[in-house]
Amino acid sequence: MNIVYGIQVTGNGHLSRGRIMVPALRESGHNVRVVISGREKNQLWGTDSLKPYEVKIGLTFSVKRGQIQLLSTIYNAGFLELKRDVNKLDLNGVDLVISDYEPIVTSAAKKQGVLSIGIGHQYAFNYPIPKAGQNIISNYILKNYAPVDIPIGLHWGHFNENIMPPIIPRYEPKTDMKPNHILVYLPWEDINKIIAECFICYEFEFFIYGPFQKDYNVGNIQFRKFNIASFKEDLINCEGVISNAGFELPSEVMALNKKLLVKPLFGQMEQLSNAHALKELSLGVITEKINSDIIKNWYYESSPAYLPFRNVARSITDWINKKNYFDQSELTQSCWN
Fold this sequence. Notes:
The chain contains 12 helices and 16 strands. By secondary structure, the chain is of the alpha/beta class. The chain folds into 2 domains: 2-169 and 309-336, Rossmann fold (3-Layer(aba) Sandwich); 181-301, Rossmann fold, CATH 3.40.50.2000. The chain starts with a strand and ends with a helix. The mean pLDDT is 90.
C-alpha cells in the first residue's frame, strides 16, 4: 500500500516509535512516506531509518523550567502555517494514513477522505485509563489535536480495554550493569539546577544528556550531547534512569529492568497521568522535584521496574496487512498474552 506516516516530535517518544514502525512497514512491502512536524530539521537526531522524510512546522508546546507555558503555546502555535501545510499535503493515491499524534496528516486525511489510523500513547486516553491533571482544555486538546478513524492506544497496562503494550526497541539482555551509573534525561527542566544537584551526589556517576555542543566530563558528571548510539549504550549500561514522565523512555527502562525516577512536567496532563499510572502499577518512583536527597533515597530504597518486551510493531504490521482494521480484539489479546 501507499502509506503516509506522520510523526509529531515535540518530544522524542514519537520519533522512537517511528524508528521502529516505519522500517517494519517498509520491510513488509509498503511504500511509506514520512511527514515529521513539531521541531526544526536541525534539531532532529537519530532519523536515518526514517529517510526520506519531510519536515513541517506543525504544532508544538512552549515549556519553561519544567512547566507548560499556555499563553506562549497559543501565541506560537502557527495555526495559519498548519492550515497551509494541510491544504498542500496531496493524498491522491494514498491508501492509508498512520499518525503518531501528528495533526497535519490526520487533518489532510479527514479532508480528503482517506482512512486514518492513530498509533501512539495519546490515543490510549480515548479509554478510561488512570488520569490526572485533566481539565476542559487538556481534554479538548487530547481529543482534537490529531483525531483519527481508528485509534490504537499504547500503555503499560491494558486496563481491560483494547490498548496495546509499548512499541520499543529490543535490547540484548545485559546482566553486568555498571553500579552507581545513572542516566539523566530531563529536557524540559532547568539543566543548571539538575547539574548542581547531581554534583552533590558524588557517590554516583551521572550521564546527563542535554543541549551541549560536545561530550565532556566534570567530576562525577559526564555531559552528553544528543546522539542516539551513545544514548542507547548508556541506557543499557546504567543502573537507573531519571527522566520526565514521558512514555517511550520509561517503557525502555522497564523492559531493561532498571530503577526509574520520573518527574512529570507540570501542566501537562499526559505526563501527570503517566506518573499516576506508574504509581498505580508500581513501576517507578514519582517526584515533584529533583534534588540530591530524593536521588539518594530513590537509588537506595527503590527496586527496578520491569515490564517484559513484546514485539508490538510486528503484530501491528501483520494486523495492517490483513486490512481488518475495525477489529482490534485479537491484536490486543495476542500482544498481552
